[in-house]
Write the structure tokens for this entry.
Amino acid sequence: MRIALLANPAARSGARTGAAMRAAERLRTHGVQTAIVSGGSALESSELLRAAIDAGVDAVAVAGGDGTVRLAIQHLAGTGIPLGIIPTGTGNDFAAALGLRELDVETAADAIAAGTTLDVDLARVLRDDGTAEHFATVLASGFDSRVNDRANAMTWPRGGSRYTIAILREFVTLAGMPYVVEFESADGARERVESDLVMATVANGRTYGGGIPISPDADPTDGLLDLVLVRPAGRARLLRLLPRVYRGTHGTVPEVAMHRVRSVRIVSPGVTGYADGDPIGALPLTVDVAPRALRVFIPAV
């Protein structure tokens, strides 16, 4: 097997940049031909990965987090070329959905070499300018996209705890925003919600922000997306509800509505959408599901 291993172009620490080397060494012990691909920016890395795929590889692996995964899936969606993940990023939510242990380079590399794969869904974002992009985990807008803005600007701490701190800080200015949300539900019915919302989230996977189960019933193999809408409430009440969000039991709260959908269009002025932890575009955005669009390596049962 020949693999192109994409290293996170944003990694700077020795431990994180060294993960790609350790993974490559581990794969080579299994007889897997491994070439590391790493550019000085996301754009350069994307171009180098595209060239490696065009030259002919049997699989692609990434050493990084959800943002690096999103870079790779733009080239892999619908191709049947499998993706392996060495989870060394901040969030690693997609890796967690596949049963990979965070920062365990050797175990993740072993899973790739073993060759067990699963076909999973992706979500596709359509912008009004006609451009499109895929994401693997969650698209956030509203309060949670502002949390991402703050978390991404923080240099400390690393890991999921930075999202917890960002959430608490954003509560200071928390307010509802005018939204129009139109969606096709799982049974084909079309619905429209026009209301002030704190957030509107579209999920292919259960968690975001380093393990927060925003859509606890989401399944990336069911051919559907999960839409989570949160209406305004007092800051004190929402703060008391945070523990339920972290437990994944917020679905029964009156201010929260969850829908299984095939597609959704979200409109709110001045709001940016984040997908897999990175900005993906200003609203309005349309999101639909790409069933079984990505083949991934998973640990053998």
Remarks:
- The first strand starts at residue 2 and ends at 7.
- The CA atoms of residues 11 and 17 lie 6 Å apart.
- The longest helix spans residues 14-29.
- The chain has two domains: 2-115, 127-291.
